[in-house]
Amino acid sequence: MTRTAVVNDYNHPQPGATSTLTLDEKVAREISNNGISRPKGYTVSFHANPEVEKMHFGPKHPMKPWRLTLTNKLVLAYGMHDAMDMYIPRPADYDEMIEYHKDDYINFLRTITPKDKLELENNQWPYNMGDDCPVFDGLYDYCSLYSGASLDAARKVTNNQSDIAINWSGGLHHAKKAEASGFCYINDIVLAILQLLYHHPRVLYIDLDVHHGDGVEQAFWSTDRVMTLSLHKYDKFQFFPGTGGMDDTGPRNNANPGAHHSLNVPLQDGIHDEEYTQLFKDVMDPCIATYRPTAIVIQCGGDSLGGDRLGCFNLNIRAHGACVEYTKRLGLPMLVLGGGGYTPRNVARLWAHETSVCIGTNLHHSIPSHTPFIEHFAPDKTLYPDLSHPARYDNKNTDKYLRDIVQNVHEQLRYVEGSPSVQLQYVPSDLGALREEIEREIEEEKDGRDVGRRKKERGAGGRGEYGH
Questions:
Q1: What CA–CA distance (Å, rounded) separates 190 from 325?
Q2: What predicted TM-score, i.e. pTM, was given to this entire model?
Q3: Most buried among 207, 298, 377, 439, using CB within 10 Å?
Q4: From CA 172, how far away is CA 190, in angstroms rounded?
Q5: Is residue 447 over pLDDT 70?
Q6: Each residue of 32-50: pLDDT tens digit?
Q7: Which comes out higher in pLDDT, residue 276 or 455?
Q8: What pLDDT does residue 432 have?
Q9: Per-residue pLDDT tens for 344-369?
Q10: Dihedral angle sign, alpha carbons of residues 159, 160, 161, 166
Q11: CA distance 400 to 18
């Protein structure tokens, strides 16, 4: 048959010569260009169930689980999965969630549907459900999926299968024992820390979200087995949740083992990179030296970035990541969780960057062209846009105010008598009941009553030997 101009010989292009590379070849090229390899001397695991990405709070709600899709696509496009153990965790089951939460609340989450609102008295949801915490199709599945991922990550750490375990779907720090709060339904952080306490005497919880980590602080209010450190915007009346002031340091009674174990860094609008990272180091150093944790959980809420829909800081991605890097260098077992963040493209950039911090690699600025949904990172399509210029908020944090915060943290740590001596015999699941019992005993001591009988009935050992 005569060859025509329409029919031309086809020569297969050499790899790298054109844009016709397969996806695997493109990812392999990114792995090589970014110098990605498995970390030496430690193991990083990545825990992600793709089903959680499909959940939808509603068209006008600021929480968008789809931000996890963007995050995971960036992680895969850069080839970072090649440096980690990748897990698709199972959902948490009912028994795992009632390790902390009340069973009637979990039963409500398990059975409620949006249609049930028609049958409610006064058309009001119980358990603080409503506009911030809507009832949507698949709500219970959503809760069990992100909680299961945090539990799986914690177990990999306690089993020595992972030194750093990442779950970006977790970090929902506002949920209380028997109610939803601040877009959070199940407190996966508390469930994960309870797992860690089976093996670790002391856990330090760090919260980088722009909102105070009130749910985690409340859960471990009366124990010295967990120290909480939260850096957040604070305004008692104008900014959610209105807690976490400088004087909120735990129970007022020094006889309570949790006294001075809740450390808060309440910030004003507009803090910048250098101030934030220096402040983080200035409060972290004395915490580590005094408390000597054996494991760390860090919540990496992305709403502390500049330009966030609900945030009010002026931080860039690298400054936020510097706090994760600083924590990683301590060499302690570490659980890395997500949290807030309401500008999805920047949340994805942040968590991709902090994944690279965990595996010890530096990523190129330009987002790989083969990244799915890359148009969402337009127009610059870079991993590190300038999020602080122009600044949306004036910086109201004076040098004196920041010094006062550091001084206050040092002052509170003076009351912490070093690391508590712990016999790992039992970790009670009902933290609230134990806290109430301890507080009753303290009141009885003030009244001069005999509390020896109750201590004997509860078993040998001081209060500091029990995890909450």
A1: 23
A2: 0.86
A3: 207
A4: 9
A5: no
A6: 999 999 999 999 999 999 9
A7: 276
A8: 52
A9: 999 999 999 999 999 999 999 999 99
A10: positive
A11: 57
pLDDT higher than 90, residue 238: yes
Other Cβ atoms within 10 Å of 92 Cβ, number: 22
Backbone angles phi, psi at 298, to 5 degrees: -120, 125
Distance of CA 368 to the CA centre of its chain: 27
| Residue 241 preceded by cis peptide, ω within 30 | yes
Residue 379: asked if its preceding bond is cis (omega within 30°), the reply is yes
Q: Which two tokens stand for residue 445?
A: 């001591």
**Are residues 357 and 44 in contact, defined by beta-carbon separation less than 8 angstroms?**
no
Residue 16 has pLDDT above 60, yes or no: no
| Residue 62 CB neighbours (<10 A) | 17
SS (H, E, C) the chain: CCCCCCCCCCCCCCCCCCCCCCHHHHHHHHHHHCCCCCCCCCCEEEECCHHHHHCCCCCCCCCCCCHHHHHHHHHHHHCHHHHCEEECCCCCCHHHHCCCCCHHHHHHHHHCCHHHHHHCHHHCCCCCCCCCCCCCCCHHHHHHHHHHHHHHHHHHHHCCCCCEEEECCCCCCCCECCECECCECCCHHHHHHHHHHCCCCCEEEEECCCCCCHHHHHHCCCCCCEEEEEEEECCCCCCCCCCCCCCCCCCCCCCCCCCCCEEEEEECCCCCHHHHHHHHHHHHHHHHHHHCCCEEEEECCHHHECCCCCCCCCECHHHHHHHHHHHHCCCCCEEEECCCCCCHHHHHHHHHHHHHHHHCCCCCCECCCCCCCHHHHCCCCECCCCCCCCCCCCCCCCHHHHHHHHHHHHHHHCCCCCCCCCCCCCCCCCHHHHHHHHHHHHHHHHCCCCCHHHHHHHCCCCHHHCCC
pLDDT band at 124 (very low <50, low <70, confident <90, very high): confident
Task: Say yes or no to pLDDT of 390 above 50.
Answer: yes
Residue 184 · residue 172 · CB < 8 Å:
yes
Tell me the angle at which helices 23-33 and 67-78 cross, rounded to the nearest 10 degrees. Answer: 70
- Give the tens place of pLDDT for each residue, 419-438: 555 544 444 445 555 555 65
Single-letter code of the amino acid located at 107: N
Active site residues: 212
Whether 120 shows a pLDDT value over 90: the answer reads no
Do 345 and 71 form a contact (C-beta atoms < 8 A)?
Answer: no
- Whole-angstrom Cα distance, residue 460 to residue 435? 18
Query: In 10 A of CB 124, how many CB atoms?
Result: 9
| Predicted local distance difference test score (pLDDT) of residue 467 | 33
Tokens at 46, concatenated? 């990545």
**Two structure tokens written together for 394:** 């004036």
